Amino acid sequence: MAVRHETELYAPLKVFFEKQGYEIKGEVRTCDMVGIRMNDDQPLIVEMKKSFNLSLLLQGVERLKLSPNVILAVERCRDKKGAVNQRWGELSELCRRLGLGLMTVIFYKTKPPLVEVLVEPGEIPPVRRISGRRQERLLYEFHERSGDYNTGGSTRVKLVTAYREKALRVAVALQEIEADPSRLVLKPTGTTPAELRKRSGVPGAAAILQNNYYGWFIRIMRGRYSLTPAGVSALTEYSAITSGCNSSEVIS
C-alpha cells in the first residue's frame, strides 16, 4: 500500500526506535527525526522519503557532518517490484559504502507497518573482489573489436560486437567468393567453412555458420553455405565496417 506523504513514515519509525531506548523528536534543525539514547555519544539522525532518490542520498551525506549515525528511511512498496528505487541489494551496498544506514517501512491494509533495517549506519563495506573471468571477457571483447563503431550510452540499438564483426567478415568473404568470375561453374554450389575460415581469417567461421545467430547464412547442402537476403542486407547496413573487411588481404 503506497503512502501519500513521507510524514506517514514517522509514526512507525518512532515506535521502532523508542523500543530500542531512544527518545525521539521530529524536525530538529531541519533533520526529519533525531534520537538520543542514554550512554550513546552520538545522536541518531533519520531522513525520510517516500522513495529512494538522489535528493535523499545527498541529504544523508550532509547529515554525516552532524553524526556518524545517519539512517535513510523509505517506503518499501510491494507493488513497485523492479523499479529503480526498489533495487534494495544495490541500494544497500551504496549506502554501506557511504557509511549510511538504510531502513524500509512496509505498509499493510489490515496490520501494523513492518520496519526493516537493511544496513546499519557505519557498517564496514565488504572488500569488493574483482571477477577475473568477467574482466577477462571484458578485455577480450575490447581487443577483438577492430574499431569503435558504437556510441556510448546507446540503448535499444544493434551493437557492433566482436562477434558481429566476425560474422560480417565471414559474410564478406562468402559474398566475394560467390561473385568471383574465376569460380568454376562446375564447382559445387555454396562455400565450405574451411574455405571461409581461410578467406575471412576468422578461426571460428564454422561455428558462426552453424549457429547462424543473425540469420545471414543458409546451408544449401551438407558442408556448404550461402548468403541469405538478410545477409546481403547486413553487408549494406554495415558498409562502414565491411569496407575494411577485404578478405583478399587475408589470403594474400
Care to describe what's here?
- The chain contains ten helices and eight strands.
- It is elongated, with a radius of gyration of 30 Å.
- It has helices spanning 10-18, 54-63, 88-98, 132-144, 162-179, 193-200, 205-211, 229-237, 239-242, 248-251, and strands spanning 22-28, 31-37, 44-49, 69-75, 101-106, 114-119, 217-221, 224-227.
- The longest helix has 18 residues, at 162-179.
- Strand 1 (22-28) and strand 2 (31-37) form a beta hairpin.
- The strands form two sheets. It has a six-stranded mixed sheet, sandwiched between helices. A two-stranded antiparallel sheet has the order 7-8.
Task: List the secondary-structure elements in sequence, H or E.
Answer: HEEEHEHEEHHHHEEHHH
Radius of gyration: 30 Å
The shape, in one word, is elongated
Main beta-sheet strand count, sense and barrel state: 6 strands, mixed
Strand percentage, roughly? Answer: 15-25%
| Overall number of strands | 8
Amino-to-carboxy terminus distance: 70 Å
Q: What do the pLDDT scores average to?
A: 87
Q: Percent of residues in helical segments?
A: 25-40%
Low-confidence stretches: 248-252
Sheet/helix structural class: alpha/beta
Helices and strands in order, then pairings?
Elements: H1 10-18, E1 22-28, E2 31-37, E3 44-49, H2 54-63, E4 69-75, H3 88-98, E5 101-106, E6 114-119, H4 132-144, H5 162-179, H6 193-200, H7 205-211, E7 217-221, E8 224-227, H8 229-237, H9 239-242, H10 248-251
Parallel strand pairs: 3-4, 4-5
Antiparallel strand pairs: 1-2, 2-3, 5-6, 7-8
Helix pairs in contact: 5-6, 5-8
